[in-house]
Amino acid sequence: MFNKKITIAIQSKGRLYEESKKLLSNSGISFRIIENRLLTRASNVNVDILQVRDDDIPSLVSNKVADLGIVGKNLLDEQLAGDKSLSVKEIINLGFSKCKLCFAKPKDSTTESLNNKIIASSYPNLVNQYLKQNKIKADVIKINGSVELTPYIGIADYICDLVSSGATLEANNLEATETLMESEAVLISSNDVDDTNFFDLVNRFKGVINAKDSKYVMLNCDESNIKKICSLLPGSESPTIIPLEQKNKFAIHALCKEPVFWETMEELKENGASSVLVLPVEKILN
Known about the structure:
By secondary structure, this protein is α/β, with parallel strands linked by helices. 24% of the residues lie in helices and 32% in strands. The longest helix has 13 residues, at 199-211.
């Protein structure tokens, strides 16, 4: 497994750091990261982990210093919009660090258009690209931090910034007006590398991602209710049906690749299910 050395670049601190480490660990890669160390070698597989600034990851992958990188799609698209020589591609969405890049304005502002306004953002390339595509005339200023304060110190009319829970906007009396893009962590590689080199590792990542919302459901029901109950199991392919000792009584086992909520369990019960058991799934290998 992993006969060829694979180098993965991850954020050294910040929004993606902990989730990236968790993904690697859950994918069977054993390592111990030491603070302020650039390179960590896995102890059980042929993998090196580079811990770097997030905005360095696309260029490290493009220049093949790293084989793979984990980075926010928002940052990747911002760099691609500003540097056409960057040679990187997305391999898979990783399902964590989800957020939106949104335009926002003060709640007491009466303006309803971006036209002829000043927009502050840490993502000037994406904002300018959006304005051009939508034929909007506006001025964009790049701000690297505390973007949400700029309307109140007279620097900008609007901001364009990342929004996850919306708490930062609320705390600064701002309201989102429109979404430029939705973002999450993505796995990237160089455009001109052979993806088969990473096939096994990427499959492990997919197994962890697919298991995140998946549940293993076990229940009992009468024979007459089997068809209805199977139709209620979310994201289930082909449930296993097992006859029980009691006549006309069956057990149904199913891997549900969508979340199983209390409402789902209650609906199963209403349709004749009993002893409904929902178990977490750690990994899935298709």
